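Agenda item 2: protoporphyrin IX containing FE complex prediction
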Amino acid sequence: MANAKKSHALPEGGQWPDAIAFWAVLAGAVLTTIGFLMAFLYAGPVNGASVDGMPEMIGGQMVSSKLLLSQKIFYFHMPVAIVSFGALAFAGYYSVRFLMTKNQRYDTCAKVAMEISLIFVVCTMITGDLWTRFEWGVWWTWDPRLTTYLILMLIIIAYFVLRGFIDEPERRSIYSAVVSIIALVDVPICLMITRMIPSSIHPVVLREGGMTGDMGMTVGVCMIGMILLGFGMYRLRFRQVRLAQRVQALKDELEEN
Amino acid sequence: MSVVLKTPSTFQQYKTLLRKDLEQEFRTKEMITSMGIYALLVLVVFGAALGQTTQALDLLQVSGGLLWTLIVFTSLLGLNRSFNHEKEQGCLEGILLVPLDRSVIFLAKATSNILFLLAVEVITVPLFYFFFLTAVTPGESFWLLVLPLLVGTIGMAGIGTLLSTITVNTRGKDVMLAVLFVPIIFPLLFACASATTAIIVGAEGAMDVFYPALLLAAGYDVIMLLLSWVLYDFVISA
Amino acid sequence: MSVVLKTPSTFQQYKTLLRKDLEQEFRTKEMITSMGIYALLVLVVFGAALGQTTQALDLLQVSGGLLWTLIVFTSLLGLNRSFNHEKEQGCLEGILLVPLDRSVIFLAKATSNILFLLAVEVITVPLFYFFFLTAVTPGESFWLLVLPLLVGTIGMAGIGTLLSTITVNTRGKDVMLAVLFVPIIFPLLFACASATTAIIVGAEGAMDVFYPALLLAAGYDVIMLLLSWVLYDFVISA
Amino acid sequence: MQAAITTKKLSKVFGTRKAVDNISLEVPQGAFLSIFGPNGAGKTTLLRMLSTLSRPTSGTAKLMGIDLKEDADKAREHIGLISHNSMLYPDLTAEQNLLLYAQLYGVQNPHERVMEMLEAVELKHRRLDVVRTFSRGMTQRLSIARALINDPDVVFLDEPYSGLDPHAVEIFDELIASQREGRTFVMVSHDLQKGFDMCTHALVLARGKEVAFGPKEEFEFGAFSLLYRETVGMGVS
Amino acid sequence: MQAAITTKKLSKVFGTRKAVDNISLEVPQGAFLSIFGPNGAGKTTLLRMLSTLSRPTSGTAKLMGIDLKEDADKAREHIGLISHNSMLYPDLTAEQNLLLYAQLYGVQNPHERVMEMLEAVELKHRRLDVVRTFSRGMTQRLSIARALINDPDVVFLDEPYSGLDPHAVEIFDELIASQREGRTFVMVSHDLQKGFDMCTHALVLARGKEVAFGPKEEFEFGAFSLLYRETVGMGVS
Ligand code: HEM
Ligand SMILES: Nc1ncnc2c1ncn2[C@@H]1O[C@H](COP(=O)(O)OP(=O)(O)OP(=O)(O)O)[C@@H](O)[C@H]1O
Ligand SMILES: Nc1ncnc2c1ncn2[C@@H]1O[C@H](COP(=O)(O)OP(=O)(O)OP(=O)(O)O)[C@@H](O)[C@H]1O
Ligand SMILES: [Mg+2]
Ligand SMILES: [Mg+2]
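Presented output:
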């Protein structure tokens, strides 16, 4: 009952996390920049090889400098990918909450989380694809990881197309909640596929023995930066959407009286 | 006459609903003919597309993928129509007015979709064999093909029933269903196609691919069907 | 105000009708988004289907066929919707009430279908290239691809406009359109796919295949468009 | 003066069913013809033939002296039709919709004419809104504006009142009244009282055949009402 | 005796629009409630909530003493609904359609009950025909049979007369009259005269809010008519 009451009260304005949202974005940006610098200045190339324009011998393979440099993409690629999954998980959580309470607020939360995850998914695709270009020399292969991730992106796009194609608000939120929950099933598949299908050429760090300390440090900084960025963007966007809803509701109320 | 109501068992209601779909199909034969013809057309288009190659192409290698592409497109068509029937005269609301468990509606509809899809497959898979595989020699345990077919069909019809319940209420239903269905069904499609290809090629160690892929598909089926079942109540009452 | 009517020129009416379709699309972006996404989905399904192969498949050999299959399915979808719009509120009858030559309606609708299909191709063909052809080296006169694309698109949109006018009034429109469209379009599809494959493979003597195929396609276009134009009056007044 | 509508033995056959059977009418200019009859009597079919949307199986029909078979396009300049369907594109704005029709008809000052019509149906302030967002009553008003944009001499109305609330009905009545001067109207309706009040001529159809036709003066409401009840009592054909 | 329908502060919000706003009613068993109001007033929305097809945003509704939120399935046993849609499968025969619903409801002698209802709506001779071939009037009759097959205690009617010819209206009226004994009816209508004549209770809605509600005795037709006109004159919300 309390919930039902809240659900059609006016959409609230700012809440405490909004106060730190801006700072989170700022800190995230700073940390990511630091991570970027560390990737090139602090973290050593793989196995301590040096970048001097000459091919190096690593693990019995000749590796060119270009490849060693492109390895730097990793420091951004993985954190971005992880955050994209995280945002999706939050969207799924809010969708479940919405179905349980029918509180419109959760629908907005889920939608904004989806938007954030779309941004990060696109970034993963871009960084991953740049890497694909340097590492494997092609723009695209139908590797299982790449394919499943592309599919994940399509589901997220489908979520927004669905929202756009339904006019009634209640139906829209219920349907999109259901779709985002179903979409969540794809996340573990996407995560596990490199481990399940051995023929996959997408690397798995944990399987191949991990990173050196300096690399781990850099990844960590980037990771925290990206998480802060994701959170801050989420809150800022949420507040904007919520305030817009509030204005609309106030307008409607004025019109009615 | 006084009317006595006795709440029927869930199973009876399931049977009643399923029978309705079958009776309807029996009278019009609309679903099976249209899906069948469509499948045939898709086959022809594929044939033309692959017939382009000047060198002999290793058809065995792609046949699994082709077969499943065919099934996906055909089931898209069938799913689209199956809920259009329910909407036509507001029949779905008539059913919703009856005191029955919502998941019965899901189960009945999913079952009829499975049956229609299987019926269409009984026609198209031999045709597929005829068009693409008579020139080559598929592996000997070819008959195992029925397993991925069964698992895939069940999964597609199940999730498809949920999704088409959603899209029947949206603008541009046909595209919307495709947009949701294809990506969500993808892991299943992928696993089934792998299993099918392994079987058809029949190379050494085919079974090492076949069983894991089949298992994956079955697992996906179970998760998705459970999820669809749980979520169906929300979707249909929206 | 007294109303003065001056019968506008055919070309003006053509422009007015075409502008209506474009304005509508501009507002909703429905046709292009839905066709675009659908094309992307078909691409992914093909990719996954062909990605199954353990041995490297000669993608160049099938790419022409794949591309055209993709275009056929996408245009089927678009054609289906384009007349649904006209039917929605009886708008087609509103247009028929106006004193204008029926073939203007055909030309305007065919033009808008061509434009939408081309717009979608502008997105999907690069994607197709990206997904399938970056790993291999297509022939060097690759850019000639635009010729069969243009010829094929014009033919498909033209005949498709006629056929979708017919099927929009039948039960089960989507299948009916596919059933009529695919066989009738088949020669065009075949010729275009040949030309495209020849170009993409770029082997010696490719041009010996390319130009005759293109010519065939163009000839088919001309005949079919003339025929559609003549027959349109009968179809739309039925 | 020339008659607005003249039909001679007009028939329409669907398969083996005669939807309209040998109808001969003559409706003078400026008249208001009400058509009555049970479901399936052929009213809509007759209206569609007269408005050139469907071709008669046999017989001739003339509109403002123009034979519909010979010169349909010329006749179309004189025709306005309001049917169950609004004939408006839901995704275009009110203004775009009217402009489309104005330009197709070749109205000389299309923009001014559109504004004038929007004002007449009191929708000028909503002209930039997409028709999809209009309520049923607003859509109906716009549909009237659309039908009258080419200043037609003959206006056909197929059950224009169905589904309207009383206020919407009032607005519609006023509009029709203000437009009657010099125009011929043909209206299909199931509401005997209303249809009879408005008309100058009445036609009762049953199973495609004419049961009664004539100027209103020839009928007395009581008797006409009885005749109508009887006809309708024949049931669905 | 227990009330047939009780609502307390029933509301339904679509997005930010309040389609039904704080409606509290109490309708005794055996009553006939007529609901009036302009287009978009929330009549259909209210009916859909009461017939469990849509969930209230807030407030409670009870039907025959059963809370709709808590035990919708139990309440559904008492509900019959005739909406704009026939809710009949066009490709099944009349008999198959009724049998489907009879069996879903768990009627004890489904075949006999179906025959009985077919006789009541005078369609027994057409029972083996597919509904697609039925005329509008016949479909409407079958739809009534469908709604009453489970012998519901409360029957909801949403604009049941729209599009019917006078004969079909008569048949419908007779059927309703013969079924009124012991049943509660709720009807939405734009026809004030008819709706007021039939009812024992009346409700006027505007913009989702109750404008007037009470047993018919409390209203005098002239005043009620005036109130209704005023409400409708408020226009589409
Ligand atoms: C478009 C192309 C790509 C996409 C969509 C993609 C996607 C992903 C995703 C989603 C993750 C995080 C999930 C996980 O940890 O398993 C990830 C991690 C990773 N990716 Fe990629 N990737 C792409 C290309 C590449 C390429 C070309 C390489 C290197 C050659 C690469 C190397 C890695 C590594 C090393 C990790 C961390 C893996 C781990 O910790 O298990 N990725 N990628
Ligand atoms: N396109 C068609 N094909 C076949 N039969 C048709 C067609 N259109 C109408 N009919 C038949 O012609 C007859 C007349 O139909 P029409 O629509 O003109 O009736 P009406 O008088 O407008 O009835 P209502 O009051 O229900 O609108 C009916 O029996 C109908 O079944
Ligand atoms: N599914 C929905 N989503 C959003 N808004 C809706 C929905 N259904 C109805 N509404 C809105 O709720 C209000 C009430 O609609 P409702 O259909 O109940 O009106 P009504 O009283 O039945 O009108 P009419 O006389 O035109 O049938 C309208 O403003 C309508 O736009
Ligand atoms: Mg009619
Ligand atoms: Mg209503």
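Discussion summary: The radius of gyration of chain A is 22 Å.
Owner for follow-up: CH.
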